[in-house]
Amino acid sequence: MKQPSKRVLVTGATGFTGGALAKKLVERGDHVVALVRKGANIAPLEQLGVELVFGDITDADAVSKAAQGVQIIYHIAAVFRTAGHPDEYYEAVNIGGVKHVIDAARTHNVARTVHCSTIGVHGDIEELPSNEESPFNPGDIYQRTKLAGEQLFAKAMDDGLPGSIFRPGAIYGPGDLRLLKMFKQIKRGFFPLFGGGTNLYHLSYIDDLTDGIILCGEHPNALGQRFILCSNEYGTLKDLAATIASQLGVKAPTFAPPIGPLMLAAKACEALCRPLGIDPPLHTRRVEFFVKSRAFDNSKAREMIGYQPKISTREGVKRTIKWYQDNDLL
Ligand SMILES: NC(=O)c1ccc[n+]([C@@H]2O[C@H](COP(=O)([O-])OP(=O)(O)OC[C@H]3O[C@@H](n4cnc5c(N)ncnc54)[C@H](OP(=O)(O)O)[C@@H]3O)[C@@H](O)[C@H]2O)c1
């Protein structure tokens, strides 16, 4: 039997991206350790033979225990627009958790630590396509804490921590549930393109992304660097909706109501719900989905570490639909 080549830690392995990464690492023969929370869906990791360490990223001792003896840490865990969390929780997970990962990496002399950020740290992009050096302009608590976590990690790299940072676009593909609603609405024939859908949208297909993440963990040129890990192509939201519609065999959405009233309604919902501590049914950040433009140049990752996204949006959408259908979701 092939010997495990490396012992690696993946945080966030019960989630979409971390789970796909853990699976790929196991398939290549690595010994994967995952830091998981009690109550999380661990069955897929157990089936893969992943070693589980129970604990929370906000618990420094648990993170340190999970990092013992590993050569690479892939820090993927984050709180990502989950309903009902106060700002302090985002800070504890997306900033405090990064600090614990850095401390654990130092304590255990981990050879490489890879930190997952997001293109969302750039906010709405003025200069298109944007790149790693473009200004930061985070728009909400998720993006603000992801940026602070990234900056903490970058400072640790400046101080000698061997590591690298990657920023994915909107991650999609088999296993993703975040874009499912859009696919369902398009299939039903009602996906309003608020504001016209002319904003640019940049995706990262999961299988290409996990290849890129492993390059960040293993390629010598990745040390001390930050990379955009997006697909090779980007397009308008309207084009993406049309691609999904064509793969589903339905009519492309064209109904384009104005964005203003929707944004006003979202602001009113947030203002009413916040003092009551309830999650608003409509968020301004959901409305921003129809407004903010995101388009990036991935050439730094292609040239420095050989990142090679292979899946076109059309093919990625096709595979995603198949997965939704195979799992009776669509
Ligand atoms: N999805 C996107 O479009 C996108 C785009 C850009 C960047 N990103 C970044 O990519 C990463 C993965 O995103 P994803 O969409 O795959 O996320 P996801 O499916 O929501 O998974 C998040 C993971 O983080 C874990 N986690 C959350 N809070 C934790 C805590 N306190 N302690 C330990 N583990 C905790 C979750 O564990 P449980 O299972 O216990 O909840 C889960 O395994 C994140 O860093 C995110 O910021 C995502």
From TrEMBL:
Pathway membership, UniProt: Bacterial outer membrane biogenesis; LPS O-antigen biosynthesis
Gene3D superfamilies reported for this sequence: NAD(P)-binding Rossmann-like Domain
Pfam family, one: Epimerase
SUPFAM superfamilies in the cross-refs: NAD(P)-binding Rossmann-fold domains
Record domain NAD-dependent epimerase/dehydratase: where: 8-223
Domain of life: Bacteria
InterPro entries the UniProt entry points to: Epimerase_deHydtase, NAD(P)-bd_dom_sf
Membership in a protein family: Belongs to the NAD(P)-dependent epimerase/dehydratase family.
Protein name, as recorded: Nucleoside-diphosphate-sugar epimerase
Protein species of origin: Arenicella xantha
